[in-house]
């Protein structure tokens, strides 16, 4: 492991260094709190453990460690284990160091096997922490992404809509929402099979994304239903954009196992009135979609 020692007493530092080297670690050294911070910031990703003396000139170990923890934040994946060393074993000092962000405290003179044990314990914890963060990020991605199309799912779409409604209100900017539904999709499943239907959904999502404007959010909000959030867009502009999507999605056939599948989509569009709730806004877009369906499909209705 790469271990950084911050210790102002040269003899203590030498001894510690010799010992850690004997254990096979690579050791770097600094001799005060300021050096600790600058060395850490420059080599953050290469370091595995910090061993820090409590009392050092210029900046104490505790001050330096507090700054390092503040810099890393609680969710840093590379959160580094820190072991404090001190000539004092006063209860208050122990608490002070741990509260500042250290993971272990050893009093000097250091018993080397105890140090070794602490290094094993703190790195094991850091490893577990990293795995938890990765698992958490995966879980979050899973719970907000539609497995078939990789678009945001309904939950993520509604959250994004809530955010955009807030922004629209704060910045007094128009916001439009559209619901897009494949026409007679059931026929595709019935004629070519469910896998063909799945293929069409994925391909349609790809085509939609290929033309996505930065800042827009597209999600899969139902079986064959997609939601579009168009910030900074009034309803007329949104209708024009949706007209473009309608054409984009239906002009080329979807080729599945050498069958050309033709489809059309219907779209309902509306603009946020600044007052309504999310579900009311989506409901209005749904009503417009219903009108599009009832008046012949393959069209955009405001
Ligand atoms: P309309 O023009 O009125 O929208 O007709 P439609 O056939 O598209 O609508 P309907 O609601 O009658 O049928 C939707 C179909 O979408 C039925 C359902 O099996 C299918 N579907 C929903 N989710 C999936 C999916 O993930 N994969 C596939 N292959 N089909 C799906
Ligand atoms: Mg000291
Ligand atoms: Mg449909
Ligand atoms: Mg239907
Ligand atoms: Mg539908």
Task: Explain how this protein is built.
With 302 residues, the protein is α/β, with parallel strands linked by helices. Helix content is 51%, strand content 20%. It has 10 helices and 12 strands. Strand 9 (254-256) and strand 10 form a beta hairpin. One magnesium ion binds at residues 8-9, 53, 55-56.
Layout of secondary structure:
Blueprint: E1 2-6, H1 10-22, E2 26-30, H2 33-43, E3 49-53, H3 61-72, E4 82-86, H4 91-100, E5 104-107, H5 112-144, H6 154-170, E6 175-182, H7 185-192, H8 194-210, E7 217-222, E8 225-231, H9 235-250, E9 254-256, E10 259-261, E11 265-271, H10 278-294, E12 300-301
Parallel strand pairs: 1-2, 1-3, 3-4, 4-5, 11-12
Antiparallel strand pairs: 6-8, 6-11, 7-8, 9-10
Residues 181-183, 185, 224 line the site of one magnesium ion.
